[in-house]
Amino acid sequence: MNRRKFIQQTLAAGAALSVANKLKAVSYTDTVNPVIITTWNSGLKSNPVGWQVLADGGRALDACEAGVKIVEADPTDTSVGIGGFPDRDGHVTLDACVMDEFGNCGSVVFIEDILHPVSVARLVMEKTPHVFLAGSGAQQFALENGFKKENLLTDNARNAWLKWKEEKNYIPSEHAPNHDTIGMIALDKKGNLSGACSTSGWAFKVRGRFGDSPVIGAGLFVDNEYGAATATGLGEVMIKICGTHLICEFMRMGQSPQQACQNAVKRVYDKFPNYRKDQICFIALGKDGRHGAYSMTKGFQYTITKEGESVVIDSDYLVK
Ligand code: SD4
């Protein structure tokens, strides 16, 4: 092929692609069937709340924030919000983030005494030019915006910490022991995707540690053109592979949400043999409403809500 012909063909292909993109953009405004997908079975409590927002024609972002707040306020969940297990010094420190259909995002890490870090993360996104606020600065920002200080250390979590201290001698475990972090991604009637994630993180962690859950691209990523993904499990690994961003890029390359989740777990398996026994879990939602889920080891569950019905599903996993 001569150079001129090559350029002509490339331009023609480019024009066809741009027409396809325009058609896709038009279909974004059609009414689509909403979907919510959430890590673990706490989605049975959170998804119906988010679903109501979507059924009323609300934004996926509002649905995710409303749903995540249910779990943050549940004292029986030992990995999120009030009742979350503390760090090794006995302080409950929380991490959360949100990301919307425009690619905006906000995050708080290592925040203490605030019941709804997900809502503070949303305010960081909406009221500041920043993405992350940390620790005492995040708390100060929350208080300035009407949040109240609350004791989040329940008797159950305190007793678990005292027992841990006695048994483990103040040495953090090598593998994250408690799992229930909530990551929620949703598709609304307008066909827009958003997500939110919230956790108290690794139980009895070294003071100051935060994991993947508040880190955009690790614990949560939303690419409104192709899909969204969120993670739970050993956060250090999700950070090392930028797991949820990787999944969204896989979907952008044409992989289904399921293939994308499997390939992200496979990436960890191939690159980090030391993490092959750890719980590393992803869920993903495509722009077309298809979903995917996959984990490294057995035991991961997720909750999906469609047409108002929520079901808990056992995820497939790599190391059998
Ligand atoms: C973290 N990924 O802080 C979180 C923990 C988690 O279910 O997901 N637990 O590393």
In short:
The chain is α+β, with helices and mostly antiparallel strands and 320 residues long. It is 37% helix and 22% strand.
Blueprint (SSEs and pairs):
Elements (H helix, E strand, L loop, with lengths): L2 H25 L7 E5 L3 H13 L4 H13 L21 E6 L5 E7 L5 H11 L4 E3 H10 L10 H14 L13 E6 L5 E7 L20 E4 L3 E7 L1 H7 L1 H10 L4 H15 L8 E7 L4 E5 L5 E6 L2 E6 L6
Parallel strand pairs: 3-4
Antiparallel strand pairs: 1-5, 1-11, 2-3, 2-6, 5-6, 7-8, 8-9, 9-10, 11-12
Helix pairs in contact: 2-3, 3-4, 8-9
Bound molecules: N-hydroxy-L-asparagine.
N-hydroxy-L-asparagine binds next to strand 8.
Task: Write the element-wise H/E pattern from the N-terminal end onward.
Answer: HEHHEEHEHHEEEEHHHEEEE
What CATH architecture of the largest domain would you give?
A: 4-Layer Sandwich
- The span between the termini is 50 Å
**Overall pLDDT metric:** 92
Number of strands: 12
Low-pLDDT stretches: 6-28
Biggest β-sheet: strands ordered side by side in the sheet? 4-3-2-6-5-1-11-12
How many domain regions? 2
> Could you say what the CATH topology of the largest domain is called?
Glutamine Phosphoribosylpyrophosphate, subunit 1, domain 1
Largest sheet: 8 strands, mixed
Heteromolecules bound: N-hydroxy-L-asparagine
Give the helix tally: 9
Task: Give helix % range.
Answer: 25-40%
| Binned strand content | 15-25%
User: What is the CATH homologous superfamily assignment of the largest domain?
Assistant: (Glycosyl)asparaginase
Task: Based on Cα principal axes, name the global outline.
Answer: globular
Radius of gyration: 20 Å
Structural class assignment: alpha+beta
CATH class of the largest domain: Alpha Beta
